[in-house]
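User: My collaborator sent over this chain with a note saying "see what the structure looks like." That's all I know about it. Can you take a look?
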Amino acid sequence: MSFKTQIAAARQGIVTHQMEQVLDGEKISRTDLLERLAVGRIAIPANRNHASLKALGIGQGLRTKINVNLGVSEDCCKVDLELDKVRRAIALKADAIMDLSTFGDTQAFRRRTIDISPVMIGTVPVYDAVARYGKVVPDISVDDFFDTVRVHAEDGVDFITVHAGLNRAAVARLRQSPRLTHVVSRGGSLLLHWMTANEQENPFYEHFDRLLEICREYDVTISLGDGLRPGSLHDATDAAQIQELIVLGELTLRAWKADVQVMIEGPGHVPLNEVAANMLLEKKLCHGAPFYVLGPIVTDVAPGYDHITSAIGGALAGAHGADFLCYVTPAEHLRLPDADDMKEGIIAARIAAHAADIAKGIPGAIEWDNAMSHARKELDWARMIDLSMDPEKARAYRASSQPIDSEVCTMCGDLCAVKRSRQLLEGR
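Assistant: Without extra context I'll predict from the sequence alone. Here is the result:
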């Protein structure tokens, strides 16, 4: 094999098996895919050890993808339940799963997840370093951190979140910032703790080349994490967030030079009027790298409904250039989500992603909507249900309230506008 990574292959004009899989699922030309992969505007997270993977692309001109977070924690360490959630997420058409486990035999759960998953798998190795070694954070060594990264790569993880941009300069900016919520990134807070206690630079920033060597060996995509993402509307688009983003842009160029694929992670809690600006900033400062956003959540006051606040922000973010949406569930800010929460979050994120694809003019996106509209005009209920984002729920709603005239529904009955106008305008 003359190449180690997808970006290296693209630079040599080689179309890999994973690229063929992307071409099968997207309406993009072979030339455009190769060109955008070669310059980093598309990433194909595809660890060479993930045997069950069906590769997807993330980036310019492709469908907006969605990610599902799950994993075991000390308070909810039920491995079989989390594996059921993995299977359910795949059935609900999630494009990626991030295993954020922090307790127990994390490697066994990670390996089982990778084995059964045809979708890309991501992790945050810093979380696992705490679980793996059982040390207090300041006692974790630099080698511990990087050994954990290597284990994840060997296991077949396709992308890893690394908060390498949270360096000393960014921390200094943070300390000067009048933030309400300080650091809400779990990985960011762990590294801040380590840096402060040891009075040292972030090891992933200081030894970034070491990280690149591991990622290049297995073709692990680096998702450069936003350790200083805003956790409240008050903190959105502040100096600390932008300071880190500038560093992420610098690290992106270093990764591309080393033939390592990159995604950039973004906010967070952002008011609607700042979402578009955040997308523009990332694309400018990070050289068009694929952008992976959490939400963004556009209001702070809706716990229990944050799948909705996130979908609003996600649709707007996607329309302005975000490439990858991390789902948010109704349980956000409250508890570990259960299977029902997960479903609500997935459907909300898929709605946001599809709405964004229509706005971006992704080829073929609106054809789905046109097919639904045709089925509605024909009052073809079976077809409408089949075309639904969630056929299971649509079918249950239809069955729960049956009209006298089976051609219509119980909302309008004999006053059905669709049936009446079809009779008047088409004579049927």
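A starting point for your reply to your collaborator: The chain has a mean pLDDT of 96.
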